[in-house]
Amino acid sequence: MVTKRKVYKKSAPNGKLTTYLGRRDYYDHGTWVDNIDGIIVIDPEYLKNRKVFGIIVVAFRYGREDMDVMGMSFRKDFAVKQMQLYPPLEENKHPLTKLQARLLAKIGSNAVPFHFDLPTTTPDTVCIQPSEGDDGAPCGVDYQVTTYVGQSLDEKIHKRNSVSMSIRKLTYLEDRKEPQPHGEISKEFKFTSGAMKLECSLDKAKYYSGETININVCVDNPTSKKAKKIRLQVLQYADICLYETVQYKNIVAEVETEEGFPIESNTSGFCKVYKIRPILDAAKRRAGLALNGRVKYEDTALAASTEMAGKVNKENLGIIVNYKIKIKMTLGFGSGDMVLEVPFKLAPNRLKGNSLKPEERASEDDKEDYDLVMEEFQRVAVKGFENEVSGGLTSMGE
């Protein structure tokens, strides 16, 4: 069976340079990142003595770009990778993927392949949902692959003869065995012996976007008090790390119930499994919610948990995202509440065949037959993305 393979295409305003990419999303697998392989199509007569360069820029935005407080910019751009694409240099050559070979055969002699490696130390694409009425560029981290015509790498990039395509870098949390998240808390009361105990465990440590979380709650109550009801919430914490840490906290899913309650005094062995499903639809209008970028609105999901591997400078991560289950059990009059939080990880949707290493995937691609479908590259029009990229970027390093 022949399948269809989508290829994204975008041309410079003057029509002299066109870039093709086979994907929008690129995954970090911990020890390696998906390669960015594409094709540029050039007009040799237009180039004359100039060259074609490529650059991957990660932008950190921490507020409106027109704001400037005491000389501190609210936007930082890092050049993750930059190289000459045409004429191709020997040190930049890389084996063709099957997709590149198909595109070269289809497009013709003016097509040139390119290849970028992304470092594993670069941050994930994350966007903080702005409040209603805020039409500026949203706070977040985003990536752009830009190809441009110029005399040198450091030359200013002009919009008329450059192509910028937004991509997403996401962390794929490997499906490995980890201890089940667990937490417990106890509370003593005046004028009664014993302590009420609240215990919670999750069925696994990592969940994929849209997956149901099973929360096992157990209560032992040897006291004379009673528990009236329970509320369960999925909390998202987004820490913005620049100069000083600012934290957004959002409820992305919530369940409140009195089923099985009240738990009377001198009761032990109460156990119940509650199901909760954190999805974007339930919370997408909440300001401060961290999303996995805005390349296309229908592709956006809740931001994945940030993996902190080794000693990492938090400022280089931009935004750190964590998730917790919060259990709040309401007790009788004058007894207060019992609150317990249990952390877990949220990952992007399961990958279909893309978890293979590049060299393994190349052999798999040879077995697959598909037709190419060209699609004009479009994105949500958000202020700030249409600006020209200028020279003088800071190198993030490898």
Automatic annotation (TrEMBL):
UniProt-listed InterPro entries: Arrestin (IPR000698), Arrestin-like_C (IPR014752), Arrestin-like_N (IPR011021), Arrestin_C-like (IPR011022), Arrestin_N (IPR014753), Ig_E-set (IPR014756)
GO BP terms, alphabetized: G protein-coupled receptor internalization; signal transduction
Annotated Gene Ontology cellular component terms: cytoplasm
Gene Ontology molecular function, alphabetical: G protein-coupled receptor binding
Transmembrane segments: none
Domain Arrestin C-terminal-like: 192-351
Family: Belongs to the arrestin family.
PANTHER family tied to this protein: ARRESTIN, KURTZ ARRESTIN
Full protein name: Beta-arrestin-1-like
Gene transcribed to yield this protein: LOC115212382
